[in-house]
Write a structure and sequence with these properties.
542 residues; alpha/beta; 6-stranded mixed beta sheet; 4-stranded mixed beta sheet; 18 helices
Length: 542
């Protein structure tokens, strides 16, 4: 049993009784939040639109398939293609596959796996597809979603066969099935069996090498240009570089706000830009895997987590608790209870939508959280499944004063004698009216604006009052270029670009907005698309 809690073991219980995984994929550990490799600086999106320059390489590698990215999708695609007899070269910007988000994530959701069968908890493809497609409100490519999910079981079973240990999680959020597979090893220990199996099957890795451009001739895919002067020539290219968490320009373009990166910043949108440069088009859905351990401030530098995965400043945790939240105008903008229930999925999207968000509370709330904790203060609502675990991120008497003063000094918190002072400090023009309205709902027990349950309605009445300003933070991004149901990149006329495939989170046609509420959906779909794209390439050339 684990004795300490980490951000991958938040919200629920594992099969062995230890604290469990949060709402979905989480990214790299703080120790792996590296800056971009010097020789792998990304092309900006503006440059991509103008056309990425073609630079003839000084050497070439010939293969059947060039794969850009050694994360979940890239590794599974490379393994299945190599086992099928295809010559494969994997191009990876990092010095090893152990720097991907996949190497540190909690684990995938999958259907029809060995572990599910062993525990008499098999999740059928129909069950998982129906849940996720219904959640998306038909906003994703339904055929692609089904094809990807249909291959998640093979992906998980392949990893199990390679000795990568997993545990089948309980149904943490009441979705009706046990889909999440918690991967026990991390980092190099996790990816090494896959890398070794790929190499044994004849696949080749080119590490510390950044892909720069899809080589096209007369509209036909010819290979990949790299920053090391190596042109990897192949009639089929798979782009799966892990999204754009490290790409500030793309964040601003897609989200209209910057997102503090918790995961792998080497995933900077370069892969997406290469596909756009080759004639691809954007899809519509963009979501983030939000910070399920609370929030961060504009003053946050480095990792917001301690080695035991508590928040560096305990006042980050209020974003989890479902109190009174406002936008930059000082107005409520969401049922805050939903964020407490699904902090990674819905919480991440809510703060992206707002750009900045403010948690407002009075002294009764503040002291209760610091003392008995938020779960007890709310009366231990049974509907808040993860509530008993959320207090891991509460303020504590031994740290509260110092952490509050730090937050005030850094400019993202205020303790005041009146709500008016809070409003003035953060220019929240509508705050006083919002608090008055909210307090009336707390008194009546009915939230007439957003329908928050009575248990989460706590008034803001007793001085002193507190405000905390938060900004978006995430473990990764979901969404990118448009693909068809075979993972072929689509051009601006909605025609597939032969030979150019996009898998994992670089494609935007299977990930919903907001992020799916069944935990592990992001990495599960990445693994499934990796297996599926390999089958599509093999069948396309046979």
């Amino acid at each position: 049993m684990k004795n300490t809690m980490d951000r991958r073991s938040f919200l629920g219980l594992t099969a062995v009784g230890a604290l469990a995984v949060g709402a979905g994929l989480a990214g790299c550990s703080p120790q792996q939040q590296t800056t971009a490799v010097a020789n792998g600086a990304p092309e900006s999106e503006a440059s991509a639109r103008a056309g990425i320059a073609r630079k003839e390489g000084t050497s070439t590698k010939e293969c059947d398939v060039a794969i850009v990215g050694a994360g979940a999708a890239g590794l599974l695609a490379a393994l299945k293609l190599s086992e099928a007899g295809k010559s494969v070269v994997v191009i990876e910007k990092a010095p090893s596959a152990a720097m991907s988000n996949f190497s540190m994530c909690g684990g995938p959701t999958a259907c029809e796996t060995k572990l599910q069968e062993q525990e008499d908890a098999t999740v059928t493809l129909d069950t998982m597809f129906s849940y996720m497609y219904d959640f998306s409100r038909s906003g994703v490519n339904g055929a692609l979603l089904r094809n990807a999910l249909a291959n998640t079981g093979e992906a998980v079973n392949t990893m199990l066969d390679l000795g990568i240990e997993m545990e089948l999680m309980e149904d943490t959020y009441g979705v009706g099935f046990r889909g999440r597979h918690y991967i026990l090893p991390e980092g190099e220990e996790r990816v090494a069996p896959l890398v070794e199996a790929i190499q044994t099957a004849g696949g080749e890795f080119v590490f510390s090498t950044a892909a720069e451009k899809i080589i096209m001739e007369d509209g036909v895919v010819k290979g990949v240009q790299t920053d090391k002067g190596i042109d990897v020539m192949a009639p089929s290219v798979v782009v799966c570089t892990g999204g754009f968490l490290g790409g500030e320009e793309m964040q601003l373009d897609r989200f209209n706000t910057k997102v503090f990166p918790l995961g792998n910043t080497l995933s900077d949108g370069t892969g997406i830009n290469m596909v756009l440069d080759a004639g691809g088009a954007w899809d519509r859905n963009f979501s983030v895997l939000g910070n399920e351990c609370g929030a961060v401030s504009a003053a946050t530098e480095g990792s917001p987590f301690n080695p035991d995965w508590t928040n560096v400043n305990e006042h980050y945790g209020y974003w989890l608790f479902g109190g009174l939240y406002t936008d930059t105008a000082g107005e409520r903008f969401i049922n805050e209870e939903k964020i407490a229930q699904y902090p990674l999925a819905i919480g991440g999207e809510a703060i992206i939508r707002a750009g900045k968000a403010y948690v407002i509370m009075d002294s009764d709330y503040y002291e209760a959280v610091k003392g008995d904790g938020i779960y007890a203060y709310l009366g231990e609502p049974e509907s808040w499944i993860a509530g008993p675990e959320a207090d891991y991120y509460k303020t504590t008497p031994e740290n509260a004063d110092a952490h509050l003063q730090q937050a005030i000094d850094e400019g993202w918190a205020l303790k005041a004698d009146s709500v008016a002072e809070l409003a003035e400090k953060f220019s929240l023009g509508a705050l006083e009216e919002a608090v008055e309205r909210y307090n009336a709902y707390c008194e009546s027990g009915v939230d007439a604006d957003f329908g928050k349950s009575a248990a989460f309605l706590k008034p803001v009445k007793t001085a002193p009052f507190y405000a905390f300003e938060y900004v978006p933070s995430a473990w990764g991004t979901n969404g990118g270029v448009k693909v068809d149901s075979h993972l072929r990149a689509m051009d601006k006329q909605n025609n597939p670009i032969a030979g150019l495939y996009v898998a994992g989170v670089d494609q935007g046609s299977v990930y919903s907005m907001p992020y799916y509420t069944n935990e592990g959906a992001s990495v599960g779909l990445a693994l499934g698309t990796g297996v599926y794209v390999a089958k599509e390439i093999v069948s396309a050339v046979e």
